[in-house]
Amino acid sequence: MGLFPTTTKKVSIALLGVMALLLPFSALPLFGFLGDAGWMVMINRALIYAIAALGLNLLVGVAGQISLGHAFFMAVGAYTAVVLGGEAGRTVWGLGLPIWIWLPAAGVVAALVGILIAPTAVRVRGLYLAFVTLGLVFIGLFLWRNLGKVAGGPTTGRPWPKLEFALWRGMDPIVSFATDGPLWWWLTPINWLPWVHIEEMSRHAKTYFFVLVFVIVFALIAKNVMRTRVGRSWAAIRDRDIAAEVMGVAEAKGKTQAFAISSFYAGVAGAILASVVGRMIPESWNLFLSIEFVVIILIGGAGTIAGVFMGTFFVVLTPRLVEDATHWLATQVSEDGSFAWLGNLFIRSSPDDFIGIVSLEAAGPGLSIYQLNVVLFGVLIIVFLIVEPLGIYGIWIKVRNYWKGWPFTY
Amino acid sequence: MVVVSVPLVEFEDVSLSFKGVRALSKVSFSVGDDELFAVIGPNGAGKTSAFNCLNGVYRPQEGDIRWRGDSILGMRPDRVAALGIARTFQNIELFAHMTVLENITLGRHIRTEVGWFAGGLWLGKAKREEMANREKVEDIIDLLEIEAWRVYPVGMLPYGIQKRVELGRALAMEPELLLLDEPVAGMNLEETEDMARFILDIREELGISMILVEHDMGLVMDIADRVMVLDFGEVIATGPPDAIQSDPNVIKAYLGEELDV
Fold this sequence. Notes:
The complex is a heterodimer.
Chain A: H1 7-22, H2 37-62, H3 70-85, H4 99-121, H5 127-146, H6 148-151, E1 158-159, E2 164-165, E3 175-176, H7 203-227, H8 229-239, H9 241-246, H10 251-277, E4 279-280, H11 287-300, H12 305-334, H13 340-346, H14 369-387, H15 391-405
Antiparallel strand pairs in A: 1-4, 2-3
Chain B: E1 9-18, E2 21-31, E3 36-40, H1 47-55, E4 62-67, E5 70-71, H2 77-82, E6 85-87, H3 100-106, H4 116-120, H5 124-144, H6 159-172, E7 177-181, H7 189-206, E8 209-213, H8 217-223, E9 226-231, E10 234-239, H9 241-245, H10 248-255
Helix pairs in contact in B: 3-6, 5-6
């Protein structure tokens, strides 16, 4: 199968590409606000999550091996990066090597750890595999808490190397994706479009482009693996493992490959995430992070690249939307707007107010917005599992097929 | 009877038991090049178990299984497949979420070699291989007359078509030996005739040796060169179809004995 087999797909992917390029310049009509720093931070996080989710999708969605250990492999990548690229201190190790060493190494080391663990993981399947990989997360947390030289203090963590491209340690960076200013000095004079200001890009916009390139390359690789020999053998193992073996697929080898490649994605994503956030504590790589990725795959639609992106953006951006919506309702109440009644129903303003769910004050009587988001998460997982196991991608296919046949039902 | 010097497949006193149940006891037979060898017997006689032993899914406790004279006992199923032994299953074992195209293309696994790296980067090698795969797969789709179902996930297809797709997947392996486990089970007369035609076409055009397990006696007696009859894991007769039909042991196994009351 071709990558983008139909004209519609070619056109829509080109449109998406143009939109992705214009986004950080606040140049999208109607969606210009996405270029604001707050939104860019969220979008960058979503893109980094997408890299890890693409990897987990290969393992869970394509090869059918349920894994809760993704956070562990992200941590392995992140700590490889910080040991190789971070600055040495009195209490921490760091070699200060440049990004072109620490970033690939983050992926490779995570993949090697994946291969190391694979012999245990290929022997079990389903729920048992979920437990084995769950164990990894806890072993990981124990290690990061106790390996102070690697992970820094348990409550303070340590700073990560920045997304800066230097030739060797101690040299000035040639390109920095972590500071405001022009992207490349030789691009500065180019100001070809009136609303594109390449000479005054924020660091968020620069990080965005850096991550975007990785997302595109990793998505293409994932898609290519899926449509060639190895991806097919993974899908065969997922659907019927014994039949796959009788057809000549080496099951253990296939699963090991899936683990290794998925861990590579996780390692790179973990390293970039830590670098962009700047400082991570050991507790960040906990089970909840793993579960977020499983949720992304579930909500987006397992086994499809488009589903991964839909799931990632949904999971990362929904909390922000919920927050914005709640604040908007609060202003409606205070300004007595036309939706004030809804705000009164939704927001619990004092302990005497028995109607309402969310409270905006830190120690208010209701749920905090963060807690509301966690509850929503849980509800959404249940709803999707029952109503639409194919995820958002499945909904999209249904809508598309409906309009393909319209006005007939089929 | 076809006389061959080194048989393609040889079972020598193969015995398989699960705890107390003896599935096969001292089963011996051999299949030559270009032969269509049928295995029949009542339910539970050990026909499918014999296939599973040959495939490497089960490991018999006694005896030896040889492929072109070399023992393949204890080989993993994927290594056995790589020798050129393909198989269809009694209860369809297709990959339900993959399309017809993908299912049949998977059969190309042992005849292709592109790994994750070349595949992931879509290097020239990967592209050429996919193109060649597609051509072979289209030939098989053409042969089995399943063009119309190409892009559907196989889980959605009718039973008879699924059986054909499974045959196609096995053919994509370009096997030297094809194991057919009840290819017409549950089919109506028309579908059975279609399948018989496909089996004969495959023999004629591709020259693949076959071992056929089947309950449809009409089909077996029409197309098989030699027939082996199993009953309770033991071989009770082996020979050409006419001889088998009149063999008293076979009649006894199928119809039972007359008792003086």
